[in-house]
Every structure is written in C-alpha cells, then in structure tokens.
Prior knowledge:
Layout: E1 2-7, E2 21-23, E3 45-46, E4 49-50, H1 51-58, E5 64-67, E6 91-93, E7 99-101, H2 107-117, E8 120-125, H3 132-143, H4 149-156, E9 167-170, H5 183-195, E10 206-209, H6 217-227, E11 233-240, H7 256-266, H8 268-283, E12 290-298, H9 317-332, E13 337-343, E14 353-356, E15 359-362, H10 364-371, E16 379-380, E17 383-386, E18 389-392, E19 395-398, E20 400-407, E21 410-417, E22 424-431, E23 435-444, E24 463-465, E25 468-471, E26 474-479, E27 483-491
Parallel strand pairs: 1-22, 2-5, 2-13, 5-8, 8-9, 9-10, 10-11, 11-12, 12-13
Antiparallel strand pairs: 1-17, 3-4, 6-7, 14-15, 16-20, 18-19, 20-21, 21-27, 22-26, 23-24, 23-27, 25-26
Helix pairs in contact: 3-4, 5-6, 6-8, 7-9, 9-10
Amino acid sequence: xxxxxxxxxxxxxxxxxxxxxxxxxxxxxxxxxxxxxxxxxxxxxxxxxxxxxxxxxxxxxxxxxxxxxxxxxxxxxxxxxxxxxxxxxxxxxxxxxxxxxxxxxxxxxxxxxxxxxxxxxxxxxxxxxxxxxxxxxxxxxxxxxxxxxxxxxxxxxxxxxxxxxxxxxxxxxxxxxxxxxxxxxxxxxxxxxxxxxxxxxxxxxxxxxxxxxxxxxxxxxxxxxxxxxxxxxxxxxxxxxxxxxxxxxxxxxxxxxxxxxxxxxxxxxxxxxxxxxxxxxxxxxxxxxxxxxxxxxxxxxxxxxxxxxxxxxxxxxxxxxxxxxxxxxxxxxxxxxxxxxxxxxxxxxxxxxxxxxxxxxxxxxxxxxxxxxxxxxxxxxxxxxxxxxxxxxxxxxxxxxxxxxxxxxxxxxxxxxxxxxxxxxxxxxxxxxxxxxxxxxxxxxxxxxxxxxxxxxxxxxxxxxxxxxxxxxxxxxxxxxxxxxxxxxxxx
Length: 492
C-alpha cells in the first residue's frame, strides 16, 4: 500500500516549462531526415522542414530547442551555414559518424524551425575551436537591428528584422569534446567569451556556462567561485544507461534485473542536482543562477546495422518510465532547475520521434512529454509519499513516484509505477482543496520492452484511465505494473 498526501493549499516553486525542453544536434539523422528534408523533397514540407514531424512536436508545446550541439557545437562555424545553400561549404562531422555535413541547415533554418514549433531558440556557441569575434558576430547577426556589416549580411540573406535570441550557451562540454579544459582555464575563457555575447537592440541574452560532467563537483565549485557573477545558468549533463560506456546495454532486450538497475541509476539525477545545488548555494544563496540540465536521457547501444556514430536507438516503456522519474526529480528541484533538454528530438538517443523516409512513429517518451504538459509553468504542490519498494536482490527503489502541480483551477497529479511484477494501489489525501471531479490517462504495455515501430505505431500509447476513485478529499488509485498515469483533478 502506498500513501500520498498532497497539500493543495501550500504553494511550492513554479515548474518552469523549460524543464520540458528539447535538443537537436547535427548528429545522425536528427536534423537531416529528421527535421530537414529540403524544399525539393517528396516528403511534404514547409520551407524544407517536414510537416509531419513539426506537427507532432508542436503538440508537445515545446518551450525551447537547443542547437547545434552538443559536441558538434564546438566545431561548428556559423558562417558556413548562411547564404545560398549551393554556395555553402561542406565540412566533415568528426564527432558523429565521420560523415560530410553540407550546411544546408544553418542559422536561418534553425530560427524558422523554432518559429514553426513555437519554441524559444537556445544556441550553443563555439568556444573549443572558435573565436571571441566569431561568437560576437553571431549574436550581432541574429539580434542587431542597427547599421552594421552583420545586420546588412543578415538582410542580404533574406531576414530583414532581427530575431529574438534569449538563450545562449558559451561552449559545450569544454571539459571533454569541447576542448579538454581544466575548470580554472574554462572559467577564464567563459568570462572572456561571455563579455562579447552582448545585449543588442533590446534583446536580453540569458548566458549559460558549461557546467560539470556528472559528479565533477570541483568543476561546479571553480565555475561558481570564479564566474557566477557573469552567468545566468550553469549546465549539467547526465545520461542513464545499463552498463558502461563500452557496452551500455540493449534498448529493447533486457532482463528484469537490468530493468531495475537502470531505474536505480536514474535516481542518481536527484543526488547530482542536490549536491551541485548545494555548491551553487554557497556562492549564490538567492538562486539567481539556474541549473540547466541541457543533456539527459537514456543512452543504449545503437540498433544493429546502423552507423555507430549516429546513436540511433529504439525507445521502450522503460525509457518512458526513466523520463517520468526524471521529470519528477526536476519538479522537486524547481527552485534551482530552470531548464532541461532531453537528448534528443528525432532519431537520436531518447528521441520523441523516429523516421524512416516518409514514415514516422512516436515513441513512448513522446507520450510522457504530451501527458505531462499540464505541469508547464504550474505551481508545484508539496506532497508526502510513502509505501512499497521495488526490489532486485539487495537493491531497492521506491515503487511509486509522484508529482503534483496547480494551474488554472486544476491539479495535475502524475504517477510513475516502476515495479513490473505487480500492480500498485495509492491512497491519496488531498488537503486544502475540494475536488469535484477526476479524469485520467494511462501509459502502459504488456511488458517493459514494448515499443512502437513503423508497422505497429500504437503498441505503447496513452489510453483513458478510470481506476481513480474520488470520495470527498480521498482519492484511491490502482496502477498496473510498470505504468505511468496522469490525473486531472478539478477544484470545486
């Protein structure tokens, strides 16, 4: 038995909608074949962006999209990706598959994508192999509306008015693929580069510094001590996988023990945020600097027969549960965590959508994003949950995870039940609010390995859920094994 108490009359921090952000890198088939097919493609598109993918993504209300990387960002030179496409130089994508990048998708195409999606653009600039001048001119090209060579160039390339660019990352993983830097060195480089990421023509830039690799707490300490006053956000990257970097496990073939192990490793996100936030609190007790988890998600071995550098993997009910658990962790830390960007949108890692030519299918993870939309910019509600544990050998995790938020007179309660061997009953007491009705949706499959394919796209899809019984201030819910539910509670 699981007992849940929700204090509906005690407002917690607002859950920033940017926690439900996305990430699209020039990696594998994320940009090309994923979003971009070109105006001449037989696949129906608008200005080269495929309509089916954009339409599906829009249903998630995507708040922000990070681009062009990732590791690709620190070898990307933005001037290669503007002007007539036939004149753009091709480059070698050294990080991802050793393929030739033709630069047909560049700055103008990215802002067009964001406009079609209704998402805020988040550009990650090149510190590793770029220059201060290059970064300065990119920001000027995008945002300045006065007379300058960059403004004139943008206008010659077809964009008269400047764009709004709110989020800008000063480098990516500069401890690794972005330059193998020491934190002391990167702190100085960050201070130098960010100086030239200027606020032009009324455009206020939210500057994001490269943060730690997983549990590198020294990196956070050094960056906060030396550069906190010059940043608005500090990034954090953590991926969940089932083994080690040499063998991360199979996306669709795994044992119950491996399933439990992955969900246990997902819980490390809570520890990482807690410990990095404690360091940030020493230098920034008012929490002015946001923690930006701009790469997270599952990372498995690639699907057989695909380019190892393309990071193409399937996506199961297990991935959906990992996503739900991470969202609940982000909600818990909503005071400090102001953005998160799952890796990645299309055809790469824990994707929302998979494509094969003109065909497209939605993943179980996509459905979690869609079901949790009610948490966007909602006020989190304090809750207390106790109850069953899910065990494997001597390893244990909580069988049920929950989060609740209030917006527009309705409470959204999201529940994730991890135990794949039995159902779970949750007895919930709602304090401080009278509830007049409840409706629910459920994501569940007959096994945790279940996934959607192009021939069977609805194997894992949300369904109406009627196993939540309301009796005054009491709510009783029975969840099937390994499932995710959202309940919308109407306040009388």
